[in-house]
Amino acid sequence: MSKVNTAAPQSNGSGVFKRVAQKLLERNFLLFVTIVLFIIAYVAGLFAFKDKNFGNLQVFLNLLISNAGLIIIAVGMTMVLIIAGIDISVGSVVAVTCMMLAAMMEKAKMEPLPAVLIVLLFGVVFGAVQGWLISYLKLQPFIVTLAGMFFARGLTAVISLEMITVTNEAYVKLAQYKMYLPFGGYLNRKGEMIYPYIYPTVILALAIVVLGYIMLRYTKFGRTIYAVGGNEYSAMLMGLNVKRTKLLVYIINGFLATLGGVAYSLNTLGAFVELARGFEMDAIASTVIGGTPLTGGVGNVIGTLFGVLIKALIETFVSFQGNLSSWWSKIIISALLALFIVLQSLLAMRKEKQR
Amino acid sequence: MAIGKEILKMRHITKNFLGVRALNNVDFTLRAGEIHALMGENGAGKSTLIKVLTGAEEFESGEIWMDGIPHPIINRSPQEAQHNGISTVYQEINLCPNISVAENLFIGREPKKHGMIDWKTMNKKAKEALAVLDVDIDVTINLENYSVAIQQMVAIARAVDISSKVLILDEPTSSLNDFEVSKLFAVMRKLKERGLGIIFVTHFLEQVYEICDRITVLRNGELVGEYEVDKLPRVQLVARMMGKDFDDLAEIKREHKGSTGKEEVVVEAKGLGCSGKIKPFDITVNKGDVVGLSGLLGSGRSELARALYGADRPDKGVLKFKGKRFTSRAPIDSIRAGMGFLPENRKEEGIIADLSVRENIIIALQARQGMFKLLSRKEQEEFADRFIDLLKIKTADRETPVKQLSGGNQQKVILARWLLTNPDFLILDEPTRGIDVGTKTEIQRLVIKLAEEGKAIIFISSEIEEMLRTCNRMAILRDSSKVGELSGDEITQVNIMKAIAGGTTV
User: Fold this and answer.
1) How do residues A20-56 score in pLDDT, each as one tens digit?
2) The CATH number of B6-85+163-246 is which of 3.40.50.10800, 3.40.50.300, 3.40.50.10610, 3.10.20.30?
3) Which of B78, B145, B147 sits opposite A237 (nearest CB)?
4) Rounded to an integer, what distance in angstroms lies between the CA atom of residue A201 and that of residue B331?
């Protein structure tokens, strides 16, 4: 992933790696730290859980499989944080998305495709309303999305207080459709060759990361997002349309929140009121660990992807270890979050000093 | 070249700002191929007129006509103004620090290839745009890595590159050195040849007479008149700006004699230094001294002052204050000990924009007294009124938020803040930057008066003439170190220049 942002140099392999690392270190220290941290953690896992097949490619792929929805949502969150905004409604939006899908397919017997299209439309409208309030009426994003969070959670409960399990045949089939990789296989005890697999949601999540990267780096809109996050007033004086940019970011974020919700629903195949509680905080934490501070103007979706992977890796460690309560992963993530916030402010202080 | 047709006409522009009439029936005309100075004291309405023109502020009535557009235009946003052929460099740098130099130049109009931003071409074009101004820097790194002067040059390059008909330069030279100013002027002349109309706002009279063709003078939000430069002598211009007869510029030339050397030493630094900011230096300031710090921008003038005050913690050397060894852990220690510091960057380091004039004035005294000995409301109001009166601060009320005051008046508020604490040692870093001539003179007089009353003062200014008038000693800085000192009759323009340039050791 990280190679995308360099012009392909013609030199040998280790040279390329060195240059990428060098450039990252110079230009994007936080992203560098995130990636290094992930690699260290992964290698540590290889040693610690040698006897439990941690090195199996499937273990790595499971990181992606179980967090496809989170990756999609964190990409949206990255854009929101770059414009120095915040959105704490996404967890509830995931819940209402899953609930709407389940209700439409199970109770109204709708086909999956129109149901999915309807929830995506809902996400766009939801994002547009929040974005309009924030950018045109200049309301605080925290308050607006807090209201959005209550609204979406309330709506989830109104649709159904009971848990609904999705049984729609086509939907279940899609959810369980394993895409086998042509490599990385191993022989199991019976001597059969087992190839690692992913689900379609992983492809979707990675595609969103790539699209997000391209948009942020190579489009006028993407660069305007950074300018707005850097200094809104200056951006306005430079002739950029600040309000429209902010509105669009919240619309995209609303869309991605429901799209992530769809991916989440494909993983859970059901919905209940308390689903995905605190999910927005996972998204924010992963984004921050990925090198996007809350102060705006800085950030990168590649980092966000690694942020999610680090969070997933810690959870995997805790479950591999076997004896620890799963809450330990929260404690480790909180420590990491603290580390990153300290790093970010140290970096800011160093910059201040250089000037 | 001959000055061409009228390309911009503003007629009967009126704007109220929170109940105060900021612009009253103002006319302004710009012709193709001219450089037109917009002059006036602080609060005269120059910035407001420009913001109205560029769409950053709305206006109540009046019309703006652009050549080639058959109806009056209203620029609702800077975007529309750019679209109508107007580009602007604002007084405070309005670029985004977190994106690269190249992006700051081209954002909103990036070169594209296959619908995607073409970074290579953009970086190349950015290099070229800056080369016009003789600036050669790495355009791919973030703007925040560069000095204020470079940032200002980038802002100018951007506006020049965009500009199609009208270029507005609002105080672009306040953070530039002579060399950079001369480069800017060369570019302005080139653009003028091309038939652009340039509006130039500045406080430097010399620059007006060097480069401008015409002058429009505003006073208190009203038009005073439009003049051709050769027909308006300087004294006349100043008189028109101030609205009174004015021959004071000569009067202030009287030199401040300063201490005789027998007075008590207030500040004595030996080998004081702060890594990465200022190399170790010695300096003494006596009672009654006004010691000037002279040097190019970035030579370490402010850093020296900050090390004395403790805004940056020195890591080398010894500082004696009033005879005793003094270490400041934080500015509050320095305030308590009897120091005052008027920082260079009043917007970020000085005023607290949302608090009232009264609160801004009393805040340092309150801090000195400690949190639990509250000044009574009555005392606060008395102090505020006294200084509003004494420094002639133009404000609607003592409770007006400071952000609504003009730059010069904000500066006076900060000065009042420090004077109220009655410090023995006062550091004034560019106290007159961006301030009109009249207020400058007032502040210079005040500085001399304070010294005569027995205060020790360090005075930093980019205007040598101002330093000549107010200082009795002068320390010269070059490349983050103190390289010499001048006193008494040695202080002449030639000597200072020589010392700064490093031609001779002083």
Assistant:
1) 777 766 667 778 888 888 998 899 889 888 888 888 8
2) 3.40.50.300
3) B78
4) 56
